[in-house]
Design brief:
The chain is elongated, with a radius of gyration of 25 Å. Strand 5 and strand 6 form a beta hairpin. The protein is about 35% helix and about 25% strand. A 4-stranded antiparallel beta sheet has the order 8-9-7-10. It has helices at about 20-30, 50-55, 80-90, 110-120, 120-125, 140-150, 180-190, 200-215; strands at about 15, 35-40, 45-50, 75, 95-100, 105-110, 130-135, 155-165, 165-175, 190-195. Helix 3 (about 80-90) packs antiparallel against helix 4. It has about 220 residues and is an alpha+beta fold.
């Protein structure tokens, strides 16, 4: 089981379908949640969101609005990147967690997942970040790792930070040292360098030539 499960919390009990809308409204009034899980006979059936709950008659049961519930959740076996994707797709700051038998275990809060992200080597370890771009059919994560390791550096992490139907941008973090050699190797493999780097000898040379040409033309 991965370490992210240490962040599963049951600090606030899930709502029950027989709870009043007023109870849900109190939760949203006192806590900065966008959603909150609802159970029926101990089984997770969805999340009520703060906007819908606020419109309900306080005396009505929360279960009466079940058709407006959002049905997202994550499994306790999912890695943190997949969990983060569920947060993003559902524009929420809380996500219910179920096990493989659909037992409700609690929930993740966005703040805790970001804290977990900050503890990963991608952010914690010293290193350099480079953003490269290539045709969406032409790039290879294996090739990217090979380029970095062939220049005696280590890949600390990589993710697709932008894509469209034609191209993809990959943000890569590498251990310190050899940035210029890595950048030049990426270019030899037809990757465009999107980020700017002081160590980029190729661009520095172009700038020097441009400055020289400007001085020559201004004589």
């Amino acid at each position: 089981m991965n370490e992210i499960t240490n962040y599963i919390t049951q600090e606030i009990d899930a709502l029950n379908v027989n709870d009043t809308a007023e109870k849900a409204q109190d939760i949203f009034l006192n806590l900065p949640f966008t959603h909150f899980p609802v159970l029926e006979d101990g089984v997770y059936i969805g999340c009520t969101n703060s906007e819908d709950a606020d419109l309900l008659d306080p005396k009505k049961k929360i279960g009466e609005s079940r058709f407006n519930f959002d049905r997202f959740f994550v499994r306790n076996s999912m890695n943190w990147l997949d969990v983060l994707e569920v947060f993003a797709k559902n524009e929420t700051n809380i996500v219910p967690v179920l096990d493989e038998k659909n037992t409700y275990l609690g929930y993740y809060e966005m703040e805790d997942i970001i804290r977990f992200f900050h503890e990963t080597p991608f952010l914690r370890e010293d290193g350099g970040v480079v953003v490269v771009e290539k045709g969406i059919r032409d790039y290879s994560m294996g090739e990217i790792a090979q380029i970095i390791e062939s220049n005696n550096s280590k890949l600390l992490g990589a993710f697709i930070s932008y894509s469209d139907i034609n191209k993809v941008q990959i943000t890569v973090k590498i251990s310190l040292g050899g940035m210029n050699e890595i950048i030049q190797t990426f270019r030899r493999y037809n990757y465009e360098i999107i980020s700017e780097h002081q160590e980029d000898a190729y661009l520095n040379n172009l700038r020097d030539r441009s400055d020289y040409l400007d001085k020559y033309l201004n004589i």
